[in-house]
Backbone:
């Protein structure tokens, strides 16, 4: 799997210029502003970088090429989920640093929302992209992103119940993680049955 | 007899197209050419053998593995070039070398670098900026750098200039000298296969028309040219197929059926395959 991540790293370092610039901008705005929008956009932009590797793989025919290499299809899927999780964690770290730098607050709430958003985004989109291809799933994943960002932003406006902040912050990412694991299983099953017929 | 590839009654349907490999065997240590028109099922066969598709029926074994899609051990011993698959277009040979070294158990960096240099490939030039010939050489360098005992190559010489084709064929001929090495190659350029192959299989509309040793094939059949008026001098049952021209008729016949008054002409593999495909192979 390390080799597959290395391949994605080589790919991203050639193509992430503009997107990474936007990630930095959103993370700075997340530290300055109090709304959740920029925080989630930081995660979203980093996930777009991860998502782009899937698009490149499918466009180039690497997904088919890789299936003939001595790696299992489960490892191929796992590497994509691992890359997405790395992107989510980087987005959390960036917003955390920005919040500390610019004197923002709600560190735990931000991290919780980013993890939950990221996990749900990947859980909802990756099986479809692996099953139907990046192009056909494009409208769907933008829709999922919009709905998730809206939902988390709205929920974050409501007053919190009387449980401790820590317990509350753990709950959404944990549910997201469970969804991510279920999605991983589904994606592996899709990939195992995938046929690379002539186009 | 040991087989690198064995397909028995393999069937695969793709929409209106249907492939049926009734008996398709590739002996270990041989070079086997798979020929056929566009849409005859060559690429589908290659994809089945690489585990990129699964057969609907029948048994398929590659290097003794009957589930090649899941068998990493067998895939470590296969080098390939397949249609509609490629390395990431933004990556260069140097980067891909690092990636492959983490994927193949027996990746040989020295061989890879030597082949890149032999092919005069720029290590830092991204795949997408390479010409068709350079891309094939790049993929071939990868296929030959992990001690593979089986090469499965789909149209590796198509679209290449004669010099590049010759370079690739020489390299494959060198590879095939080792008795443990097997090559299955498809090509439209029959002259390439004539230089390289021990066996030829003709696919036609998803079905195997024949599998034959190349030398036997070339030795068995001859072309006879005769005037239209003399056609009645030939036994009609011994004529496999005929090609009528303005002034004469060309007859494909088995060597032993040619009457003594006629002059047999040796055919190239390309001419022979075209005539056999047209006239029907009778074994």
Residues:
């Amino acid at each position: 799997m390390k080799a597959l991540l290395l391949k994605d790293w080589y790919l991203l370092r050639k193509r992430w210029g503009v997107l990474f610039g936007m990630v930095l901008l959103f993370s700075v705005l997340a530290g300055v502003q109090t709304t959740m929008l920029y925080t989630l956009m930081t995660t979203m932009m980093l996930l777009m970088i991860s998502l782009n590797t899937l698009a490149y793989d499918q466009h180039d025919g690497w997904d088919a090429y890789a299936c003939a290499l001595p790696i299992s299809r489960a490892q191929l899927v796992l590497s994509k989920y691992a890359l997405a999780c790395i992107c989510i964690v980087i987005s959390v770290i960036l917003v955390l640093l920005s919040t500390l730098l610019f004197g923002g607050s709600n560190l735990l709430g931000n991290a919780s929302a980013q993890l939950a958003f990221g996990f749900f985004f990947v859980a909802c989109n990756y099986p479809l992209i692996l099953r139907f291809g990046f192009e056909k799933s494009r409208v769907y994943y933008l829709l999922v992103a919009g709905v998730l960002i809206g939902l988390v932003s709205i929920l974050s406006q409501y007053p919190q119940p009387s449980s401790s902040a820590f317990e509350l912050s753990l709950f959404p990412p944990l549910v997201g993680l469970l969804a991510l694991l279920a999605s991983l299983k589904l994606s592996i099953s899709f990939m195992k049955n995938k046929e690379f017929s002539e186009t | 007899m040991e087989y690198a590839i064995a397909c028995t009654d393999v069937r695969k349907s793709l929409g209106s197209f249907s492939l049926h490999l009734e008996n398709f065997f590739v002996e270990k240590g041989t070079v086997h050419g798979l020929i056929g028109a566009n849409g005859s099922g060559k690429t589908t066969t290659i994809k089945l053998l690489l585990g990129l598709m699964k057969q609907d029926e029948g048994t398929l074994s590659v290097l003794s593995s009957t589930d090649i899609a899941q068998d990493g051990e067998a895939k470590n011993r296969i080098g390939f070039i397949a249609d509609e698959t490629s390395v990431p277009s933004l990556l260069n040979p140097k980067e891909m070398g690092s990636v492959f070294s983490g994927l193949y158990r027996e990746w040989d960096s020295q061989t890879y670098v030597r082949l890149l240099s032999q092919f005069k490939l720029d290590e830092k030039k991204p795949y997408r900026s390479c010409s068709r010939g350079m891309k094939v050489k790049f993929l071939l360098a990868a296929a030959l750098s992990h001690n593979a005992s089986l090469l499965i190559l789909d149209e590796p010489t198509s679209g290449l200039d004669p010099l590049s084709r010759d370079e690739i064929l020489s390299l494959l001929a060198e590879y095939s000298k080792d008795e443990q090495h097997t090559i299955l190659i498809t090509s439209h350029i029959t002259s390439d296969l004539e230089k390289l192959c021990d066996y030829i299989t003709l696919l036609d509309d998803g079905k195997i028309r024949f599998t034959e040793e190349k030398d036997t094939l070339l030795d068995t059949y001859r072309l006879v040219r005769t005037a239209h008026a003399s056609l009645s001098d030939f036994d009609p049952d011994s004529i496999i197929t005929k090609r009528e021209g303005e002034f004469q008729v060309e007859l494909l016949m088995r060597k032993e059926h040619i009457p003594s008054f006629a002059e047999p002409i040796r055919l190239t593999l390309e001419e022979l395959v075209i005539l056999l495909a047209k006239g029907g192979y009778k074994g």
User: Anything to note?
Assistant: Chain A has a mean pLDDT of 85. Chain A has eight helices and no strands. The helical segments of chain A are 2-15, 17-32, 37-60, 62-67, 73-101, 107-132, 134-157, 165-193.
